[in-house]
Specification:
With about 180 residues, the chain is an all-alpha fold. Helices cover about 70% and strands about 0% of the residues.
Length: about 180
């Protein structure tokens, strides 16, 4: 079934098309939600709220501006960010200058881990680290965009990413050495 048929069916309120749209993207979007969530239950809540937003805003989707998959993903990520902003994300204070000359090790140890193990490690990060890491490394946001989305300074975004990378490196090394 094409994206155009899915969208048109959903806009008519046809439950079969809504179910088909949900089935088409639920696994991919659940994995996105898992990266931001502390638990599976929280990820399920994010996914449900995200799809509710998708169905409410589907009339705004414009094929000329991109794919349905990309649009749905962006809506879900934005809904997750709304939840996190409501919770008043806490960011550990640090000056980005403290980290500007330090680069993380480029050991290729991530190739030794499964996707599930990587997601679990990301979930263990403090919330501020986890959100900035996902927005920058996975979603491709710039530090300026992250700062605008989260209402933080650009330097805070940079330092949170640096700290997230350090924490993940420590966790991966511990996991591999055990």
């Amino acid at each position: 079934m094409t994206d155009e048929l899915l969208v048109n069916g959903c806009l008519r309120g046809d439950a079969r098309y809504q179910q088909a749209l949900y089935e088409k993207y639920k696994v991919e979007l659940f994995m996105v939600c898992m990266r931001y969530a502390k638990s599976r239950a929280e990820a399920e809540d994010f996914l449900q709220d995200g799809f509710m937003q998708v169905f409410r805003d589907l009339g705004q989707f414009d094929t000329a501006k991109g794919s349905l998959q990309g649009w749905v993903r962006r809506v879900v990520v934005n809904k997750v960010l709304q939840h996190l902003r409501k919770k008043k994300l806490q960011f550990a204070g640090a000056d980005v200058a403290d980290f500007s000359n330090q680069l993380p090790n480029n050991e290729d140890i991530l190739s030794m881990l499964s996707a599930k193990e990587i997601v679990q490690l990301i979930q263990q990060l403090p919330e501020g680290y986890r959100v900035v890491f996902n927005l920058f490394m996975v979603e491709g946001f710039s530090h300026q965009e992250i700062a605008e989305q989260l209402g933080i300074a650009e330097s805070t975004s940079k330092s949170q990413l640096f700290k997230a990378r350090q924490a993940l490196q420590r966790s991966v090394k511990e996991l591999i050495s055990s």
